[in-house]
Amino acid sequence: MEGSFSYMSPDVGYVHDVSCFWVIRTEEGKVLRMTFTFFQLESANNCPHEFLQIHDGDSSAAFQLGRFCGSSPPDELLSSDNALYFHFYSEHLRNERGFTIRWETQSPECGGTLTGTYGSIKSPGYPGKYPPGRDCVWRVITSPDLLITFTFGTLSLEHHDDCSKDYLEIRDGPLHQDPLLGKLCTTLSAPPLQTTGPFARVHFHSDSQINDQGFHITYLTSPSDLHCGGNYTDPEGLLSADLSGPFMHNRQCIYTIKQPLGEKIQVNFTHMELESQSGCSLNYIEVTSAT
Ligand SMILES: [Ca+2]
Hints:
- By secondary structure, the chain is mainly β.
- It folds into three domains: about 1-105, Jelly Rolls; about 110-225, Spermadhesin, CUB domain (Jelly Rolls, Sandwich); about 225-290, no CATH class.
- The protein is about 0% helix and about 40% strand.
- The chain has no helices and 19 strands.
- It has strands at about 1-10, 15-25, 30-40, 50-55, 65-70, 75-80, 85-95, 100-105, 110-115, 120, 135-140, 145-155, 165-170, 180-185, 195, 200-205, 215-225, 230, 255.
- The strands form five sheets. It has a five-stranded mixed sheet, with no helix packed on it. A four-stranded antiparallel sheet has the order 1-8-3-6, with no helix packed on it. It has a four-stranded antiparallel sheet with strand order 2-7-4-5, with no helix packed on it.
- The mean pLDDT is about 90.
- The site of calcium ion has 8 residues, from loops.
- This is Cubilin.
- Keywords: Disulfide bond, Glycoprotein, Repeat, Signal.
- InterPro entries: CUB_dom, Serine_Protease_S1-Domain, Sperma_CUB_dom_sf.
- It comes from Camelus dromedarius (Dromedary).
């Protein structure tokens, strides 16, 4: 769904006390993206006499995205839910003033797989407020010799002491049971977080009420300082990790062995010496089949 609407001053000089309201509503679960194709209103600080005011919902009670006048509106605005409310007011609308607004329905950005060596992740509807009742999961899958560092450009989540309401959770691996790097539910800035291996899982959760602006985080990758991990496609070969010298702390070495479809892979341990503890909780080798 898409469309546009306009208000232009009539061609008769001045009109007084114009007040108009519009609501755009689209399907449940979708968001609206709007752009200003034409915008020419009186230019004044705080727009006291003439303005277009936009709310992130279906009434003036919803969060105000902005009050605009002059001739340089923002490039685009996104709703965080499926409705936008517009209020246009002018005390004395002059000739050749008005606006045209174009809108389209979009699916909110929520989850996905990122494989680049750098990238960014935004909460659904960002820079508008995130919608309630969402769970978005992003997986960052980079190459075996890289580590991932997340930095927080914007972090603005409903604050709660034990993060039981809204939260952003980053795990040191691709799975929900992988170790937690950080769980955030604050509007305070947070220091960067670095993985110990080439994969990460980012999970955003919002509960049913009280939302905030959300987050915009970026990630960069850097080479692992140790030779560990790699991709193997030869029909046979040897994997080894040299743990001599300064002992390797907090590292995941991911080795992937890939063979043509239908081939089976046999793994033999020719030498293994790892610290022993019950349940292999501290140091371990794990072999999984990724068919
Ligand atoms: Ca909430």
